[in-house]
UniProtKB/TrEMBL annotation:
Name of one Pfam family that matches: F_bP_aldolase
Binding-site list for Zn(2+) 2: D104, E134
EC number of the protein: 4.1.2.13
Record lineage: Bacteria, Bacillati, Bacillota, Clostridia, Peptostreptococcales
GO molecular function: fructose-bisphosphate aldolase activity; zinc ion binding
Full protein name: Fructose-bisphosphate aldolase
Source organism: Anaerovirgula multivorans
Length: 309
C-alpha cells in the first residue's frame, strides 16, 4: 500500500468518535517504535516531520525511512509536514511526495492567514495532497487570565467557520488551551471545551486538530529525573481530556513530547544501569521499545484507533 492522505482516516475517525495519532519522527528508532505498535494494534498512522526534523535527519533519509515503514508494515500511513511556515516549504514537501502538509500562518493577521493558506490549498489539491491550517495562538494560558485575553488567543468559532469556507482547507488546528512542550499548565490543566463544542457545531463533520496534546506521562518524567535528568514541574494534557476532545470532532492528536520523554527516559535508565555498555543498539533498542509500548497505550487507551484495518 502506498502512502495515503488523511481524508478517509478522518472521516472514519469523526464518525467513530476516535482520533488518529500524529507522531513526530526524527530518526529510525522513533519511526520503528511507533510503527511496530501500530502494526500490532492494526492502527493507521500520521507520521509528521517538522522543519527541524528535516534539518536533523536530512529530508531524503526521513522520506526513505517512512517509505520503508509503509513497505514493512502495510499500514495506511500519512506523511505529513508539521508546522510548515511558508508556501515554499509546503510546495517542496508536496513535490517530494508528502501526502499532507500543514501551513501554519496562524501568527499572521486573519486575512493574510486566509490568503497564504488558500494558495497552499490550491497547489496541494492540484497534486492530490491534503492541507491542515491553524487558527488561534497555541499558548499556555495562566489560570488567572481574563476572558478577553483568552478570547484574543484562542480560536474564534465564527472565524474558524469563515476560514474553512474561504480557504477550502481540509483540517484545522485550533487553540483551546494546549501548548507545545512539557510545561503546558502551571496549575490545574484546563481546556476550553465549550469553545471546542461551538467550533464543532458550526462545522459538523469537519476534522479538527489538537496540537500540543502530549500527556507528559509522569512515569517517564520520574524515570528521567531518577536517572540524572532535571525536568521538574512538567505537566501535560490529561488522557481523559484527549478522549473527550476526540469525541467532539478532534480527529488528529499531535504527539511529540511524549515520544521524546519515553526515548530519553529509557536511554538514561539503560546507560545508568549498564555503565560498561557502549553499544548504541542496547540503549537505542531500549528507547525504541519504550516508544513502542507508549504508543500502543495511546492507540488503545487514548486515541481509540486500534483495530482500524
Ligand atoms: O503539536 C505537536 C507537534 O505539532 C506536539 O505537541 P507536544 O509537544 O504536546 O507533543
Ligand atoms: O510542534 C513542534 C513539534 O514538537 C516539533 O518540534 P521541532 O520543531 O523541535 O522538531
Ligand atoms: Zn502555530
Ligand atoms: Zn504543533
Amino acid at each position: 500500500m502506498p502512502l495515503v492522505t488523511s481524508k478517509e482516516l478522518f472521516s472514519r475517525a469523526y464518525d467513530g468518535n476516535f482520533a488518529i495519532g500524529a507522531f513526530n519522527v526524527n530518526n529510525m528508532e522513533i519511526i520503528q517504535g511507533i510503527v511496530d505498535a501500530a502494526k500490532e494494534e492494526k492502527a493507521p498512522l500520521i507520521l509528521q516531520v517538522s522543519a527541524g526534523a528535516r534539518k536533523y535527519a536530512n529530508p531524503t533519509y526521513l522520506k526513505k525511512l517512512v517509505e520503508a515503514a509503509v513497505e514493512d508494515s502495510g499500514l495506511p500511513i500519512v506523511l505529513h509536514l508539521d508546522h510548515g511556515e511558508s508556501y515554499d516549504i509546503c510546495k517542496q514537501c508536496i513535490d517530494d511526495g508528502f501526502t499532507s502538509v500543514m501551513i501554519d500562518a496562524s501568527h499572521h493577521p486573519f486575512e493574510e492567514n486566509i490568503a497564504i493558506t488558500k494558495k497552499v490549498v490550491e497547489y496541494a489539491h492540484s497534486k492530490g495532497v491534503v492541507v491542515e491550517a491553524e487558527l488561534g495562538r497555541l499558548a499556555g494560558i495562566e489560570d488567572d487570565v481574563n476572558v478577553s485575553e483568552k478570547d484574543a488567543a484562542y480560536t474564534n468559532p465564527e472565524q474558524a467557520a469563515e476560514f474553512v469556507k474561504k480557504t477550502g482547507v481540509d483540517s484545522l488546528a485550533i487553540a483551546i488551551g494546549t501548548s507545545h512542550g512539557a510545561y503546558k499548565f502551571k496549575g490545574e490543566p484546563q481546556l476550553d471545551f465549550e469553545r471546542l463544542q461551538k467550533i464543532a457545531k458550526l462545522m459538523p463533520g469537519y476534522p479538527l486538530v489538537l496540537h500540543g496534546a502530549s500527556t507528559v506521562l509522569p512515569e517517564f518524567v520520574e524515570l528521567c529525573n531518577k536517572f540524572g535528568g532535571d525536568i521538574p514541574g512538567a505537566q501535560g494534557v490529561p488522557e481523559e481530556m484527549l478522549r473527550k476532545a476526540a469525541s467532539l470532532g478532534v480527529c488528529k492528536i499531535n504527539i511529540d513530547t511524549d515520544l521524546r520523554l519515553a526515548l530519553t527516559a529509557a536511554i538514561r535508565k539503560s546507560l545508568s544501569e549498564n555503565p560498561g555498555n557502549f553499544d548504541p543498539r542496547k540503549y537505542l533498542g531500549e528507547g525504541r521499545t519504550a516508544i513502542k509500548e507508549m504508543v500502543r497505550h495511546k492507540i488503545v487507551n487514548v486515541l481509540g484507533c486500534n483495530n482500524f484495518l
